[in-house]
Design brief:
Two copies of one chain form a homodimer. The two termini of chain A are about 25 Å apart. In chain A, strands 1-2-3-6-5-4 form a six-stranded antiparallel β-sheet, sandwiched between helices. The first copy, chain A, contains five helices and six strands, in the order ααβαββααβββ. Chain A is globular and about 40 Å long. Chain A is an alpha+beta fold. At the A-B interface, helix 1, helix 2 and helix 5 of A face helix 1 and helix 2 of B.
Chain lengths: ~160, ~160
């Protein structure tokens, strides 16, 4: 799985953002020296399809918050992130933050002092409509809270010169 | 606190290692493309002094595991890390790993699937005997587990050309 990160064309800064078990937003802020802005492209509450239920290890029909955001610094998009969150496993005060505002997930977890674990599931090169002709490094991971899957996250990173910082 | 990371002479790779809320060992491996080796310089079990008790929020006299290690890649030391661990708060199987072997703490937590939170307390420039004339960036943080302090960690990073990778 980690082989995808060892390709010659993956800049070091992208390699660490895509490989870290910590917050990507925090690393982006440290790398760029700028505030990272989160822009929500889509957000809705849906009933879990069998496919979503499998990713979150919940029952089909359970409520799930879906969010599609971009992370940008200085006007440049570094990450397109899709998240699925199991609403029933989320402390109430976290729910409103996650569903309402343009706050990065790492910051939400930190501010509510949640103890979690990140399990990386997959790292691979893909194509993405959003980034057009630019090749994309994609990773999937789960955030585990109280021994259950709280969130499934897919982050897509464009592989090009923007990471030479 | 974060101002220490914005000094002109702090290379980007050092900035992210010293600022991350994830595993430093993992970032070092991603940056260098090499396995990181942990060398234990000191390890012992002590009774907590009042000072140690304060750092871990335990009672003076409680048992504490102290460990001083270096993290190296390709023969070069990148980090000198001191840790204090509250033995009574540690699951039994974690205890033996931590006290016996040259395993990075991030890996120990991950392998035992512990859900934790890292609270950064301090980041500052210091002098350290270990690194001699090289200026040192030091940070202190606590690993929180089940709402209590499991470990207090101080990492020292030499500020020089070795981070230009």
């Amino acid at each position: 799985m980690w082989d995808a990160l060892n390709r010659q064309d993956i800049p070091a800064c992208l390699r660490i953002c895509a490989g870290t078990d910590g917050s990507v937003t925090l690393l982006l802020e440290l790398l760029t020296g700028k505030a990272v802005s989160v822009k929500t492209l889509e957000q809705s509450v849906v009933k879990a399809t069998p496919e979503i239920a499998r990713l979150l290890d919940i029952d089909p029909g359970d409520e799930v918050n879906t969010r599609l955001v971009t992370l940008s610094a200085d006007g440049l998009v570094y990450v397109l992130a899709k998240s699925l969150s199991a609403i029933k496993r989320m402390p109430k005060e976290v729910r409103s933050d996650l569903m309402r505002a343009d706050i990065p997930i790492g910051k939400i977890l930190r501010e509510h002092k949640l103890e979690t674990r990140r399990d990386i599931l997959k790292i691979e090169m893909v194509r993405s409509e959003f980034f057009g002709d630019v090749p994309v490094l994609s990773r999937e991971y789960r955030i585990i809270y109280k021994s259950k899957v709280l969130m499934w996250i897919n982050e897509c990173f464009p592989v090009d010169g923007r990471w030479r910082m």
